[in-house]
C-alpha cells in the first residue's frame, strides 16, 4: 500500500524518529518526503493511489476538497492526541480508519501528575516559595505526607485519569475519583473510591488533580466555590485545559487563601502567560504546558502509529480507533 507523511517538518522530526520512519518505509510504499495540503491540491493526480496517511500536530483539515484529492484513502494514523481540529463531517461519511496516539500522550501527563502529587503532599511549593522570600513557611505539622489518610482526588477517569490512579496504587494513599459517566467497575479497576459529587472531592482531599477534557459542557466546571471549600494547605493541579476552570474566580480565591496552592500547567490564555495575574501570586505555580509529550517522549507516539499500521496491514483490530462519538471526549 502507498503511504505519505502529511504534517509540518517540525512535527515529523519531533514525533517520528529514524526507526519509525524506516519501519514505515519497509511496511508501505513511502517516499520518505513531506507532503502538504497545498502539494496535494495542486497536483491531485499524483495522490490518487494513496492508501495511508501518517500525521501528527499540524495535520491539515480533512474536508471534502482534500478527501476528493485522496480517493483511495483507507487509514489516517495520527501520532498525537485530539483529532477534533481537523476532522470534518465529510471524513465520517467515508469508510476511513482513524486512530490516535492519545493514550501514549497520556503517559507523560500521568508521570508529571504523580510527581506533582508527591511534592504537593510534602507542601514542597509552599516551603520553596517561603524560603525564596527569606521565610520558613507554615509549621511542618501542616504537611499531609504520603501515608494512609492522605487523600488524593482525581477528576475524570479518561485515559489520563485512569493512568494516574494506576500509578498511585503502589503508594500508601487514599485515592478518590469523580466521574459521573464512569462505571463502578472502572472505579474498582482504578483502585479509586467513588465520589458521588464534585464538591466532596474538593472538601475532603489534600490534593485535587483535574483531567477533564475541554468541552462546551465542561467549560467553567471548576468554580471558585469548589476551590474555596478546600482545607488548609491543600493543592489543586490542572494539567487538563484552562477553560475547564473559572479562572477569574480561581484568582480571587488564591488571593483570599494564601495557604492553598494551584499548580497550573494550563491556563485560559497561554499565549499571554507572562501577563496573567496568576504570575504574580506566590501560591500559583505556572508551567508552560509541559505535562504532555515533550522531547524524546514524542517518539512514543510515532512508534504507536507504526504498531497501528502493522495491525491494519495484517487485518487486525486497531489499538485506539477514533469514532465520531469518541472524538468529542478526547482532550
TrEMBL record:
Domain D-isomer specific 2-hydroxyacid dehydrogenase NAD-binding: 119-291
Gene3D superfamilies recorded: NAD(P)-binding Rossmann-like Domain (3.40.50.720)
CDD domains listed in its UniProt record: 2-Hacid_dh_8
Pfam families named in the record: 2-Hacid_dh_C
Keyword Coiled coil in annotation: no
GO molecular function, one term: NAD binding
Keyword Oxidoreductase among record annotations: yes
Gene Ontology annotations for the cellular component aspect, listed alphabetically: cytosol
Keywords, sorted A to Z: NAD, Oxidoreductase
Protein name per Swiss-Prot or TrEMBL: Hydroxyacid dehydrogenase
